[in-house]
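User: My advisor, Dr. K., asked me to get a structural model of this assembly before our group meeting. I'm new to this, so sorry if the format is off. These are the inputs:
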Amino acid sequence: MSEAVSALAGARGSGLVELADAGVTGMITLRGDLPLLGGALESVLGLGLPGQRQVVTGQRGQVLWMSPDELLIVLPYAEAPGVAAALSAALGDAFATVAVVSDARALITVTGAQARDVLAKLMPVDFADFPVASVRRTRAAQVAAALWRESETEWKLVCFRSVASYVFEALATVAQPGGEVGLYR
Amino acid sequence: MSHRLGTGGRLIDRARPMDFTFNGKTMRGYAGDTLAAALLGAGQVLVGRSFKYHRPRGIMASGAEEPNALVGLGEGQRYEPNQRVTTTELFPGLKASSQNHWPSLEFDVGAINAKLWRFFPAGFYYKTFIAPRPFWKHLYEPIIRRSAGLGRAPDAETHDADRYEQIYAFCDVLVAGGGIAGLKAAREAADAGKRVILVEQTAHFGGRAVVDGLEVEGQGAEAWVAAQLAALSSMPGVTVLSRTMVSGVYDHGYALAYQRIADHTPGAEKPRHRLWRIRAGQIVSATGAIERPLSFAGNDLPGVMLASAVRDYVVNWAVSPGKSVAVVTNNDDAYRTALALHAVGIKVPAVIDARREATGDLPARVRAAGIRVIEDAAIRHVEGGKAVTGVALCRFNSDGGAVIETLSCDALAMSGGWSPVVHLWSHCGGKLLWNEAGAFFRPDPARPPLGADGKGFVTCVGAANGELGNEGEAPMLPVWLMPAQASYDLRAKAWLDPQNDVKVSDVQLAAQEGYASVEHTKRYTTLGMATDQGKLSNINGLAILSDALGQPIPQTGTTTFRPPYTPISLGAIAGEARGGIFQPLRKTPIYDWHAARGAHWEPVGYWRRPYCYPKAGETHAQAVSREINQTRKAVGILDASTLGKLVVKGPDAGRFLDMLYTNVMSTLKVGKCRYGLMCNENGFLSDDGVVARLSEDTWLCHTTSGGADRIHAWMEDWLQCEWWDWKVHVVNLTEQFAQIAVVGPKARALLEKLGGDMDLSAAAFPFMDWKEGHLGDIPARIFRISFSGELSYEVAVPAGQGLALWERLMEAGAEFGVAPYGTEALHVMRAEKGFIMIGDETDGTVIPQDLGLGWAISKKKADFLGKRGMEREAMVSADRWQLVGLETLDGSVLPDGALAPLPGKNDNGQQETQGRVTSTYFSPTLGKGIAMGLLHKGPARMGEVVQFQNASGGTVAARVVDPCFYDKAGEKQNV
Amino acid sequence: MLLLSCPCCGVTAEETEFANGGEAHLKRFGPGSTDAEYEAYMFARKNPRGVHFERWRHAYGCGKWFLMARDTMTLEVYGTYKAQTTEPPAELQAHIKARRPEWEGF
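Assistant: The format is fine. Below is the predicted structure of the whole assembly, which you can bring to the meeting.
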């Protein structure tokens, strides 16, 4: 059996923060009217519908608010095709789109007390206004990324697969010791 | 001579001496010194030569406004030219070298220019080197460029050893300047619970107050500053940064601040500079004021310094610029310098005051100290060569003809009054008012720079707002030239802009020659255009110009203040974007395999695609030919993962695609593929690709590699902004799949060998069909399409299994003679088939009909994007250039882009042409050069021989042929 | 560098997250239109010195297009609104009129 590999092949980095490839991760893009999608989410995954720029976490995975008509489900890699099929079935003939995008992305975890200072070196985001369980789509250096906050010190960043090594290297570069800032204390 | 005093110096630590070198000579300073203080402390008065005349120059100021003392700093990978010694903190082992001199600082051949000063007036270069025209490019400019310029550029082969970074920050209030006014503003905002960033460009807070020993809120300035800093640093939401300069203020509260983290500790494992990209609700400019020099003959000699700078050196670093220091002024403030010098035992032979009388409190204290005050007097000229030896005085209101007295001194402190630093106010459009009493421009509070809400977002406080704290002092006397009616000889030695060597006489000449606009005069004379941007020269120059034009200063106005306030490093601007992360490099899932096989790369947007895979000893051309031959004879595989893959789904998807493509996609049967063209509303071809219908309501649109994001955005634009009631979703799945083209007579055999659940036989899987299933155990979708004319399949698998499939194909294909091939083989093979390539055959002015693609344009559809544009007169004209194949008579390869000339010239005097080459290659299949081109009425001219220009100025004859050179009947792909 | 507020995802962010799409509220003229209509649609732009309605896409964010009323002289932003409309909302027009009494209206 051919095993899927992640773009970063388990890369790790250590500096002002800990960086890690989260490995292959299941992701499903849902497009459609959010209340409609919410019904399918509830029935298939038991997950509630996130509010604007919010993340809902449950037993079987997470669901992220991506735009007024788009959600991203994050779950174990192997479960993505089955869940996508179940969601499609639950949505029936309704105008909605379910697409597995697990392989199109890379997922990087950024952990540490200085994570906000490090992320602020690449992302034009005000981290003073970024509570746990919220998500922000923005720019990481020169590419698009989505970032969400798992806890006080743990963040997840998702980017396109093709630029995974660019993003990882950029993070590792600005996380080098000596680059302490102290902006977010 | 300048020297270190025996005691004092509030910023230095005498217990920590530091050795450094200047022009190879070892000198000693102390921790806390700037390089300027250390040089002066070591007796080094002469620090450089000027830009144009190579005049000897010394240190004039004590901060960012310094015009003269620029040095080359460091060496090798840390060498940097044009560094101001006044803003360079001393560190052990610092190496500095002076600039603009040859062979040595003390003896400089270029100084001959100074002897010829009469021949170098304003606009000299423009006037002298204009004719004959060709001489400029080949003779004058190269010589002038070699002899002019400031420091030497770093060696192109060295790479900056340091790292740099940027950070995005947000605050309610950004305070620029850590003097008393800045600290007060920061404290006030912080006390109100605001998020505050306070930055100070030097290593120390307090500004002038701590130097002049003033009292603040009933406390000594030093203690007050320390208390404020301690309080601010402990408050949440307050960020205090020293060694950080707000370099520019931009739209909507955006500001850049330049933090010099490690300039004073080179080699530390830290970023050298950090550029702060700050978005602030309000910006408080507490940037203080800069003292103006006075314009008199010889005011640029080493030893002539700003009065405030002299005070800084004495108080901060215990350095005196001389043993005997005269003071010249038009205001009371400079008397503080006389007192400061007197207090440390330095002789002050006199304070020379241009005013009729000096009656204030400060002059009284100076007189009480036994220092002579000479009223109604001026410096006629400064005596000395490489250093001041004395000053000759005359009456202020005179032409300087009569010397009233000559004073012996080895340094001169001058003060022409103060100018608020209004740069940050002005950067984004804040307007200025002329203050008559102080003779300076100050911010006009009624006309601030406006933010997103339409309200002002910059305020100035303290000296930056024109509040100089000189209440109770006698009025200053505006003095723009000293003596007031100085003769030409004196004016021609009175420097306005010492960095760019602009004199009073130059500005007067410009006015005389008709330069009435301050912006034009600036460019003509180069006044204020040096790296210091005229911090010292601006007002003095304006005043001279206004006087010459016979109009008041506010009517002349000021030049535009532009960021950065002082130069910032290119490293800080680049931030992390250098080396491997200079720009994003997009990698396909098979990238590492290609790299390991020595692929030669072709950039396609941010992607890197293998151009070819040269084997040992093979040229790229040989590799390309081998890859083509192997593919056409056996089987080749191509990493086509970069192809755009957009899923379009919904009840209105068919209708939507019918609008986007020129042909009909709604009638495509599920399971089938169709080639389609997309045009913009001009009718010009924009993208092409194969569309597959996946289900009743779902299509998969392939785009070009470079077009995926653009076409995705194009689709979203129409769906969101024009047809927002249509029920269509677009999902960009480009990166979800690795896509591999398996091409050649053995392609089917190779795929069948991998096994799986799909029937790949010709009968079950005809051309332009697609199937979904497994190849071995890998889930795959296979499209039977061909861009090469061969039997061909494009296999899409989840990206995470792309490499696995590729390796299996290589392994299983060994027995068939499989070869990986790159983009060049792809291009040659498509050209052999006469297939167009977006970006080669198209250039944004080509409609599908030009390319013989009329068959792909629906006649039945009432509308599609570009249909109206194609109906325009010029588009339906019979006179268009159209696609043909081209075969050289001698078998050679036509130059890419070659034009086919016609006799005669067009209205612009250019050669008339009738066509051009759009794609040209050596075809290994045919053993000769083949090309495609656009030719006037081309398809009607089959068989005709047309001349194309070659690179050596001659022409090459090519026969017009059908663009399909290979297997026109399509027998190879339909097997 | 402008600061923009996306009405689709509620984010206020700097210009580098967005892509400008030129003048808003253009009316498309396709087949059957006169040359003058087509020209107006394709090429004639108001390019005003003052109040301007323009298209922006939150390209690095939620991906949605929205419209913005902005003053090209002062860079004042009067407001942003959803792209799915043929004219600026009445309250926005009233706000602009209040800020710029000399504005001739949409």
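One thing worth pointing out at the meeting: The first strand of chain C starts at residue 3 and ends at 5.

User: Perfect, thanks a lot.
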